[in-house]
Amino acid sequence: MSKPKAKPPRAQDRASVLEGERNRKMARSSQNYVRGNTKQFYQWLAGPSAPGIPEGPAIWICGDCHVSNLGPVADASGRTRIHVRDLDQTVVGNPAYDIIRLALSLASAARGSNLPGVATAHMLESIMDGYSSAFEHDFDEEQDNPEPPDEVRVTLRESQRRTWKHLAKERIKNTRPTIPLGKSFWPIQESERLAIESMFAADDIARVVTMVESRDDDANVEVIDAAYWMKGCSSLGRLRYGVLAGVSDEGSKSSEYCLMDVKEAIESAAPVSGGVEMPRDPAERVVEGARHISPFLGARLRAATLLDKPVFIRELLPQDLKLEFGQLTSSQALKAAAYLATVVGFAHARQMDSSTRASWQRELAGCRSSDLDAPSWLWTNVVGLLVDHERAYLEHCRRYALGAGGGEASG
C-alpha cells in the first residue's frame, strides 16, 4: 500500500519544512554536506590551518565551484557548452579558491567511489594540468572549451537532445499549462502571485522570456501559473519560485510555454579581493559575475526585486543540466578532473590579458613540489578540508538522527 502524498506546506510553515529538508539532504552523504557548506569552506581557508594559498589576479570567480555547479548550459540560440552553471556565490576574488573548491568536490566524489588515496593524489595533479592548460590559449577571439571526455560527453549529448517535453516531464510532470503542486512545488499566497505578475509585466524581465531565438521580441508574455519551488540544498530557505509563462505573438490563439526560475540572491560567503568594486545589489552581482564566467548563462539572466528582496531570473532551458557522477574508476576520475578544471581555467583565463595569464601560470607552476606534481598548498588544503568536513558531517548526522527520532536520511 503506497503512502499518501504529503500536503504542500502553508506559506507560514515553509521555513521549518525547508530547514528540515536541508538537514535531511545534507545527512544523506558527505558529498551533499560538502556542497551545502560554502561558509564552512571559507572559514577553513581563513583559519590558521590553511597553508599559504597563492594570491591570483582579482577576477570574477564562481565562489562555489563544486562539480554539480558545472554542466551543459545553452545560450538563447540553442548552442550548448559545458560551463559554470551556478553563480550564487560569485565575487571578484582569488581564482585559487575555485581550484580548491573543485578539488575538494572531486576528492569527495573519489572517496564516495571508494577509490584509493593515491587516486586522489593523481586527481589533484590532473586538476592542475587541466587548469593550467587553459592559459596556453589565445583569447583575442572567442575560444571554445576543449572536447569533453566520455564521462562528461554523455551528459552533453543528452542535453543537446532535450526538448520542452523532457523539461515538462521532469520538472512539472505534464505539458499542460499548470504547475502541479506536491513535493517540489508549493502553493503561494495571492500577494506573491500579484508581485510575480507585476515583475514579469516589466519590459526588461519580459525580454528574458522573448530572447530565445525562435521567439519574437514583441511577443506577449503572460504568467500562466506560479509556485514556490523547493529546490537545491544550500539555497533552501531563500525565496524561490517556478513560474510557468506563456509566450504568444500578437493575435495568435496559441502559446509557447516556458519555465522561469526566480531565485533570491544573498550576500556571498566568498571573500572579495581588496580594492575592487562590485555591484552592491546581490542579484546584480550574480548577473555581472555570470556574464564574465559563463557568458551563455550570463546573457540569459536578469536582476530584479520581488517582495523587497533581490532576485535573479532565468528561463530554465531543457539543455541546462548539472553533472552528477556515480561510481567512478580511477581512470574516469582523472579524465573528468582534468576536463572540469580546464573548463574553470577557461572561465578564468578569458578575463585576463596575455601578460596576466602568463604571470598566473608561472605562479602556479612555481608552486609544484618535486615528489607530487601538484602544489603543496592544494594537497594540504584538500586533505585538511576533507577531514574538517567529515568530522562536521558525522556530527551533523548525529544531531539529525537525534532530532529525527532515529529516522533515516535516505530518499
What labels would you give this structure?
411 residues; alpha+beta; six-stranded antiparallel β-sheet; 14 helices; 10 strands; 45% helix
Account of the 3D structure:
With 411 residues, the protein is an alpha+beta fold. The protein folds into 2 domains: 20-160 and 321-403, no CATH class; 168-281 and 304-315. It has helices at 14-28, 30-35, 38-46, 95-112, 117-133, 150-161, 164-172, 190-201, 203-210, 282-293, 295-298, 330-349, 354-366, 376-403; strands at residues 59-61, 70-74, 80-84, 91-93, 185-186, 220-229, 240-248, 256-264, 302-306, 309-315. A hairpin with a 7-residue loop joins β7 and β8 (256-264). α4 (95-112) runs antiparallel to α5 and α5 (117-133) runs parallel beside α12. The radius of gyration is 22 Å and the shape is globular.
Q: Secondary-structure blueprint of this entry?
A:
Blueprint: H1 14-28, H2 30-35, H3 38-46, E1 59-61, E2 70-74, E3 80-84, E4 91-93, H4 95-112, H5 117-133, H6 150-161, H7 164-172, E5 185-186, H8 190-201, H9 203-210, E6 220-229, E7 240-248, E8 256-264, H10 282-293, H11 295-298, E9 302-306, E10 309-315, H12 330-349, H13 354-366, H14 376-403
Antiparallel strand pairs: 1-4, 2-3, 5-6, 6-7, 7-8, 8-10, 9-10
Helix pairs in contact: 1-14, 3-14, 4-5, 4-12, 4-14, 5-12
Distance between the termini: 18 Å
Query: What's the number of domains?
Result: 2
Strand order within the widest beta sheet: 5-6-7-8-10-9
Average pLDDT:
83
Tell me the series of helices and strands, N- to C-terminal: HHHEEEEHHHHEHHEEEHHEEHHH
Q: In one word, what is the shape?
A: globular
Major sheet details: 6 strands, antiparallel
Note the beta-strand portion. 5-15%
Tell me the helix content: 40-55%
- Gyration radius, in Å: 22 Å
Number of strands: 10
Number of helices: 14
Q: Class by helix and strand content?
A: alpha+beta
List unreliable stretches of 5+ residues: none
- Multimeric state: single chain
